[in-house]
């Protein structure tokens, strides 16, 4: 008879009691930190790249998208460049009215700090962007943020 007996050991089971708490904690975290877009773009645009890119603050922002019109599925409808201010497709002459509407909704203290976020397709003609800038200047919206992606390229 041998001195040592061979015993079979089993790996203990994994305690899954805390798993639902962990899942709901992570879900709650993502619900808090996720930023939902207020305005749905109705034009297709690819933002240009830049070297000095900063994130803008979100109080009193009017979004202007410049690009080609798209349908609900994201398919480009035509090659004509369109301008979207918040949720409406407009012409250059209507931009001042849309800025005035946005100011009317804002609090009195925030009106001087109105910021326009301009997001244009990289292939948009500069003449259209200049016309939009001129309309914003006439409407008194002088704080303009230009949206771009970071190029991450070393400058020599």
In short:
The protein is α/β, with parallel strands linked by helices and 156 residues long. The protein is built from three helices and eight strands. 26% of the residues lie in helices and 21% in strands.
Description:
The structure is a single chain. The protein has 156 residues and is of the alpha/beta class. It is built from three helices and eight strands, in the order H-E-E-E-E-E-H-E-H-E-E. Strands 1, 3, 4, 5, 6 and 7 form a six-stranded mixed β-sheet that branches. It has a two-stranded parallel ribbon with strand order 2-8. A hairpin with a 2-residue loop joins strand 4 (82-85) and strand 5 (88-90). Helix 2 crosses helix 3 (126-139).
Strand content: 15-25%
Major β-sheet profile: 6 strands, mixed
Mean pLDDT comes to 81
The rough form would be described as elongated
Structural class: alpha/beta
Q: Which consecutive residue ranges, at least 5 long each, have pLDDT under 50?
A: none
SSE series:
HEEEEEHEHEE
Give the number of DSSP strands: 8
End-to-end gap: 81 Å
In DSSP terms (H or I, runs of 4 or more residues), the helix count works out at: 3
Binned, the helix content reads 25-40%
Oligomer: single chain
Instruction: Indicate the radius of gyration in whole angstroms.
Output: 26 Å
Topology overview:
Elements: H1 19-33, E1 43-44, E2 49-50, E3 61-69, E4 82-85, E5 88-90, H2 95-105, E6 115-120, H3 126-139, E7 143-146, E8 149-150
Helix pairs in contact: 2-3
